[in-house]
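Q: I have two molecules that I believe assemble together. Could you output structure tokens for the complex as a whole instead of separate predictions?
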Amino acid sequence: MMCETTDGGPEQDIGADSTDAGGGGEDANEAELAQFSALLEDSAEDLYEHAPCGYLSTLMDGRIAKINTTLVDWLGYTRAQLLGRKRFADLLTMGGKLYHETHFAPLLAMQGQVSGIALELKAADGSRLPVLVTSQVKTGSDGQPMLIRTTVVDARDRRAYENELLRARRHAEQVGAQAEQARAEAEHARQAAEIEHARLRQVMAILQSSLLPPELPRVPGMEAAAYYHTASADQLGGDFYDLFALGQGQWGFFLGDVCGKGPQAAAITSLTRYTLRAAFQHASDPVAALDTLNTALHDRYSGADPRYCTAIAGTLSPHGGTLRVTVASGGHPPALLLRGDGAAEYLPTPGGLLVGIMPHPHFTTATTVLNPGDTMLLYTDGLTEARTADGPRYSEDHLHAFAQTLAPAGAQQTISVLTGLLESFGNGLDDDTALLALGNPAAHTDPESA
Amino acid sequence: MTTTLTLTTRSIPTGAVLTVAGDLDHDSAGQLRAAVDAIVLRPGDLLTVDLTDLAYCDSTGITALIAARNHTHTHGADIALTAVPSTTLRILGMLGLDQLFPIHPASEADA
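A: Yes, here they are, computed for all two components at once.
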């Protein structure tokens, strides 16, 4: 009822002002003001009851003493169900009740006023109504608190707007998360591909190394050194070599080149290497070994897709201070001899046919003796067919001239110098290249003068 | 540095002449195989491969020549090389292939 009086005041004042203004005696003005007045609330009571916000007066113990129609309608209760029966807190949700008890009421008791608090009212049908609540304590003339006046503003639109903002933010976060996930998946796929690529390279490196002896054996009274160059890290090479004991002080060796590159060539390289090795164990004879290999290749690969290799194979037998060498060639470039006296010469093996082409080929043999200081070099045509920086290809004549300036040289020195030569070709070295040097060490010479 | 491979085929009463010019290597050997496969050979025919303008021949080129030889023999025909450049001749000799391929001097390609 206090609420009514206070709120009604200004309206009455406006009415009184208009009446006073009408006292001016101007009829037109008076009629206009009357019309204006009619547009305004006809009574303070009606304004209170049907205001666009809820009004509520509660006793100090919280019981509802007075409530306007707007709020009664919002809540869906009858006025009788509320007046004197429910407290303001009873209209709140559980969370609202707690907040009211712990914050709202103490603040109100302390300050006499609390404004703009967002709460949720619970309607009779259980639905929830978001509101903004402002309360003020009305004191009597003795300064004692008498009752609490409360206005309740409908905050549904505002809440809907807040929810919309919240939803938009969540959506943005979700889209961001999806983008982040897509990025993570792409990164994951890239890493997986990288791992797969690395694995493949590792497999190829293992296969490649399985085609070569991991390390040359130490041979008493002989110096052995080798070098292997692959034209491409991703390509399995087709060159091969080996050095192995044959028993009774005799040693077997071979070096060769399977035509072609890649996995098919590598498969034949493997076949070739193990066939030669096994054939040597059966009979310590280079020609027999090449015959066995020829049969193995020719049986399997002929016709439109011939597969063949060039190979040079041989035996070494110590004899006194010398090494007796027998080599057989199947279409392979001749061995190069670097003599201890500084001469260099090829060990010709002409007419030996490529291995794997004909059913019954004829392989050519040659023999020589390696005296102390002599070194025999075996090589593949990666060396003699490399493109030099000047343009023309390196050739057997070039190699011969190079060897003449190099000799005399031990096996290790020969390989080191030729490795440097190969590196000087750079990109011109477009084929795999294998080198194997076998030498009879010079007697009592220190390596530095060699 | 690299010249392309040019192949031309013409029929003559006794068979066919295949002219090979340029680089016969890993990249171009397949073209030679395809050209040889396209040549119709009857038993007793001779396929003459003219190498006058062969600039370079690597091991895959040699393989293609061996495949050509296998192809002619399958059809009861024969193969011969003519005007082989000296470097290639040296390689053929080293590989022992001069025993497998009849090799003729230049003038016989025109026969």
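A: One point stands out. Chain B has one domain: 6-96.
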